[in-house]
Amino acid sequence: xxxxxxxxxxxxxxxxxxxxxxxxxxxxxxxxxxxxxxxxxxxxxxxxxxxxxxxxxxxxxxxxxxxxxxxxxxxxxxxxxxxxxxxxxxxxxxxxxxxxxxxxxxxxxxxxxxxxxxxxxxxxxxxxxxxxxxxxxxxxxxxxxxxxxxxxxxxxxxxxxxxxxxxxxxxxxxxxxxxxxxxxxxxxxxxxxxxxxxxxxxxxxxxx
Length: 208
Ligand code: URA
Known about the structure:
uracil phosphoribosyltransferase activity, magnesium ion binding, PRTase-like, binds uracil, glycosyltransferase, 15 strands
């Protein structure tokens, strides 16, 4: 299984609070945003740098700046929205696309119902955000679609993953690195990650 588990103590501590059934929507949203920001730090660890000359109050010097790589963030609706602002706090210049995917109850195949992406897909590096990587169907479909539109560099950011979802992404998209704060035990018969945290969308938006 190819997956990068981000095991920073702050992330693990906050994830435990997020999982707790006693955590209400306000705190859940705040924690999720904080975790997303910390995870974005890891996902952007290898961004290329270049030298630039600046002048400090003391002397001229050559210093490093990001080499202008264009980034795109694509939350999968609706739970992905809960992590976007955390990522944007670290990468404010990133463009944000949105993708909505549901699973057809008859074919069980993912169907895209909404898609709005930056115009220059082929020139960007993308972070697809799917907090709960369950079967992996929605993420794989979103990555398929980004690739069809020309995207070449894609990372997948999750909060909690099921082994089934990680395997599916590894199989369908071996070039896509999967980052998560935890790989849980399994998926139950209703498609929930166990132990997981319940329905991430409901917990973010208080719809249950
Ligand atoms: N989506 C969720 O929100 N939770 C799960 O456990 C699985 C999919």
